[in-house]
């Protein structure tokens, strides 16, 4: 978290984690640039994109990090998590193995974070209802058990993408304002 002299500007680091090909990069490009790629290739190396929203008349910047392919080799480093105050843990509603991995991602996140992290469990690809493998109920139950927010999204048709990120950003903001007060 950073704030300028007037305390009117905030910068929050948010990380996106989850198995390969669940749609992490597309969720980010949809939110930050309103773009979607059908055949996005994972490029190696960490990347982030920034988007600002206004809360209480203040500019709140989210610096959102993408694993950019590192997750394929289970090589997401501690530097990736450092300073993160928010996280989206993503699975693909059509692939059960990606849902089973959520706990491992959470453990990794918890191991590397030393502060309160606002966490959202994201069931992506909800446009693929006909080949759904994880019910909404299963997602909700896991989120409740682990103390996470929960949402289903589609980076393809934009369903709930903005909402997923902005619930997290607003939660971080409210965590921070509570601390400041
Ligand atoms: P990442 O490896 O988690 O970053 O996943 P990508 O964003 O690269 O997406 C992997 C594949 O899933 C790509 O072929 C995307 O086009 C596709 N994809 C991503 N999000 C969605 C979605 O919401 N719906 C559908 N149908 N496909 C998606
Ligand atoms: Mg990616």
Automatic annotation (TrEMBL):
It is a lipid-anchor. This is Uncharacterized protein. It comes from Escallonia rubra. Its main location: membrane. The chain holds residues 1 to 181 of 217 of the full protein. GO terms for cellular component: endomembrane system. GO terms for molecular function: GTP binding; GTPase activity. Belongs to the small GTPase superfamily. Rab family. Keywords: GTP-binding, Lipoprotein, Membrane, Nucleotide-binding, Prenylation. It is found in: Endomembrane system.
């Amino acid at each position: 978290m950073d704030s300028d002299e007037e305390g009117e500007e905030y910068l929050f680091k948010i990380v996106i984690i989850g198995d390969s090909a669940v749609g992490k990069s597309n969720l980010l490009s949809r939110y930050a640039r309103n773009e979607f790629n059908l055949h996005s290739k994972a490029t190696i190396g960490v990347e982030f994109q920034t988007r600002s929203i206004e809360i209480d008349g203040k500019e709140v910047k989210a610096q959102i990090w993408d694993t950019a392919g590192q997750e394929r080799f289970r090589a997401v480093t501690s530097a990736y998590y450092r300073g993160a105050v928010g996280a989206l843990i993503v699975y693909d509603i059509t692939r059960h193995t990606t849902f089973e991995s959520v706990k491992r991602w959470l453990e990794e996140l918890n191991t590397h974070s030393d502060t309160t992290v606002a966490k959202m469990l994201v069931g992506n690809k909800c446009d693929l209802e006909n080949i759904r493998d994880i019910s909404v109920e299963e997602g909700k139950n896991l989120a409740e058990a682990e103390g996470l927010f929960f949402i289903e999204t589609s980076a393809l048709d934009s369903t709930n993408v903005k909402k997923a990120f902005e619930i997290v950003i607003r939660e971080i903001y409210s965590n921070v304002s509570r601390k400041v007060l």
